[in-house]
Amino acid sequence: MIVRILGEGQLEVDDSAVAELNALDSQLEAAADRNDEAAFAAALETLLSRVRALGRPLEDAALEPSELILPQDGATMADVRKLLTDDGLIPG
Amino acid sequence: MSVMKRVTLIFRSKANKALDRMEDPRETLDYSYQTQLELLQKVRRGVADVATSRKRVELQMNQLEQSSTKLDKQARDALSAGREDLAREALSRKSGVQGQLTDLQTQYTSLQGEEEKLTAASQRLQAKVDAFRTKKETIKATYTAAEAQTRINEAFTGISEEMGDVGMAIQRAEDKTEQMRARAGAIDELMASGALDDVVSGPRDDIQAELDRMGTSQDVDGELARMKAELAQGSAPRELEGSAGPAGAEQAEAPATAAQPADRQQAGEGQ
């Protein structure tokens, strides 16, 4: 499975890691629902470092789309919300 | 829905919308390639901008560093001249300079990180644009428009995701550079106004002026103190030889000769 961390590039992560990443993602979602910025930052940090630890960087010339895209390191809840609005941050 | 999945969907839908706008799929390839080249230019400019900004911060940090060293020396000079008021003023300015320095250091580290990330992003994009160009030519040469569709979609979705990512990275770097410019401008203004001690503006430096005014008499006092210390030291070895001597008469004399230079020194310090 190919995972992209925004600002860092793509990584190939073994499919067996999906359950763990989903659990971490749920914590991220829960923190966002509670509007808990500190918990959100901690959950994002954990999620990203797990992906970095489990994944192997994809070669630069690869043109494959990612199955999962994660917010950039240090992204706040406001950053992610802006990212999710239709005419938000993504250019084009 | 999960954060990861929502972010992924947003990227996907952007790519799909762009694909839908194209009449001939093969046209998509050429158009996309042009956009990629433009983005590549933009990310390179971004890297250069961040580097310029970082160098400016570096320069200001050096100036503040010098300023801090100078204020520290002034405080010492003032204190040894018995002017605690001047020393206090110099130290309070130094503390202001140190505050600015700490702030700049944080900004500097952050800009450095941004520069590294953007440089890596620029390299990744370059590699992908090259790969895309090759793939584009292969697709155009080998397949009919209808057959090419799936392959085009894949390549396009892959590169468009990268472009979205790089586009946002450029935006973040621009925001940081902009903040940095404003901050650097503010510090330049502070220096120009004299509120922050600028090393270059020697003549406006009131602490230094006061120290210079006192300087002449201070030099004479300093010279005198040094000479007295030298004289005191010059007589010191004799007392050591005396106390080490085996003769009883010399030993008895020793305390008296040892006391003499010490008295003289104390008197000298009292002046």
Oligomer: heterodimer
Number of strands of chain B: 0
Strand order of the largest sheet of chain A: 3-2-1-4
Compressed to H and E, one letter per element, the order of chain A equals EEHHEEH
Q: Give a quick account of the main beta sheet of chain A: strands, pairing sense, barrel closure.
A: 4 strands, mixed
How many β-strands of chain A, per DSSP?
4
Distance between the termini of chain B: 83 Å
Could you estimate the helical fraction of the residues of chain B in percent?
A: over 70%
What fraction of the residues of chain B are assigned to beta strands by DSSP? Answer: under 5%
Task: State the major sheet of chain B.
Answer: none
Low-pLDDT runs of 5+ residues of chain B are: 198-203, 241-271
Topology, pairings included?
The complex is a heterodimer of chains A (92) and B (271).
Chain A: E1 2-5, E2 9-12, H1 18-33, H2 37-54, E3 56-57, E4 68-70, H3 77-84
Chain B: H1 3-21, H2 25-80, H3 84-142, H4 145-193, H5 206-244, H6 248-270
Helix pairs in contact in B: 1-4, 2-3, 2-4, 3-4, 5-6
Q: What does this molecule look like?
A:
Chain A is α+β, with helices and mostly antiparallel strands and 92 residues long. Helix content of chain A is 46%, strand content 14%. Chain A contains 3 helices and 4 strands, in the order E-E-H-H-E-E-H. Chain A has helices spanning 18-33, 37-54, 77-84, and strands at residues 2-5, 9-12, 56-57, 68-70. Chain A has a 4-stranded mixed beta sheet with strand order 3-2-1-4, covered by helices on one side. In chain A, a hairpin with a 3-residue loop joins strand 1 and strand 2 (9-12). In chain A, helix 1 (18-33) runs antiparallel to helix 2 (37-54). The longest helix of chain A is centred in the middle third of the chain and has 18 residues, at 37-54. Chain A starts with a strand and ends in an 8-residue tail after the last helix. With 271 residues, chain B is an all-alpha fold. In chain B, 90% of the residues lie in helices and 0% in strands. In chain B, helix 1 crosses helix 4 (145-193), helix 3 (84-142) runs antiparallel to helix 4 (145-193) and helix 5 (206-244) packs antiparallel against helix 6. The longest helix of chain B is centred in the middle third of the chain and has 59 residues, at 84-142. Chain B starts with a helix and ends with a helix. The relative contact order of chain B is 0.11. Residues 198-203 and 241-271 of chain B have low confidence and may be disordered. The interface between A and B is large, with 35 and 42 residues.
